[in-house]
């Protein structure tokens, strides 16, 4: 028996096994369009990419007042209410208190704050640990929504961080 013909088969098997969490066509990704709520001019695009242990959030939002704005995954994938309240509360399957995503206690839907420049534009690129896009269990976020709030998130006030009105909403729908 010769080993040489087995090497390509073994390499192919290892490559496929290593791509299991990525899916056949690469990483699991979702594109979300943030649409303004009634009376708001805030809009944007967010790309979510599942990575090892969490989700990479790449957000570009415009039409904001300069400064900080709360940004969260909300429990329902429904942006039909004029004020965005149909999205429900923060996504919190673990029942923890609201807090900064870098701290031990926080809602899984608590994201780092969006900070708008003098032109009202905000960019955020961060990995949020513990979330999955379409994975198994309670941590998956497909079927939920993203909300941009009017005020800065204080990461302390319960249950919302005192982030104020909902300025934009986008449903996290099926992965690409």
UniProtKB/TrEMBL annotation:
InterPro entries in UniProt: SOD-like_Cu/Zn_dom_sf, SOD_Cu/Zn_/chaperone, SOD_Cu/Zn_BS, SOD_Cu_Zn_dom
Cofactors demanded by this protein: Cu cation; Zn(2+)
Keywords, in A-Z order: Copper, Metal-binding, Oxidoreductase, Signal, Zinc
Keyword hit for Signal: yes
Signal sequence, start to end: 1-23
Keyword Nucleotide-binding on entry: no
Positions of the UniProt region annotated as Disordered: 78-106
Cofactor detail note: Binds 1 copper ion per subunit.
The name this protein goes by in its record: Superoxide dismutase [Cu-Zn]
Naturally occurring in which organism (per UniProt): Aromatoleum diolicum
């Amino acid at each position: 028996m010769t080993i040489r013909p087995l090497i390509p088969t073994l390499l192919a098997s290892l490559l496929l096994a290593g791509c299991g969490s990525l899916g056949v066509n690469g990483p699991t990704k979702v594109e979300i369009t943030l649409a303004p709520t009634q009376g708001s001019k805030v809009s944007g695009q967010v790309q979510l990419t599942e990575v090892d242990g969490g989700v990479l959030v790449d957000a570009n939002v415009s039409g904001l007042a300069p400064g900080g704005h709360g940004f969260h995954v909300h429990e329902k994938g429904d942006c039909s209410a004029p004020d965005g309240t149909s999205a429900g509360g923060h996504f919190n399957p673990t029942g923890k208190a609201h807090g900064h995503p870098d701290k031990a206690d926080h809602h899984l839907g608590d994201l780092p704050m969006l900070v708008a420049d003098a032109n009202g534009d905000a960019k955020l690129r961060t990995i949020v640990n513990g979330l999955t896009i379409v994975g198994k269990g309670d941590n998956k976020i497909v079927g939920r929504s993203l909300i941009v709030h009017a005020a800065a998130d204080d990461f302390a006030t319960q249950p919302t961080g005192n982030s104020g009105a909902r300025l934009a909403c986008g449903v996290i729908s099926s992965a690409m």
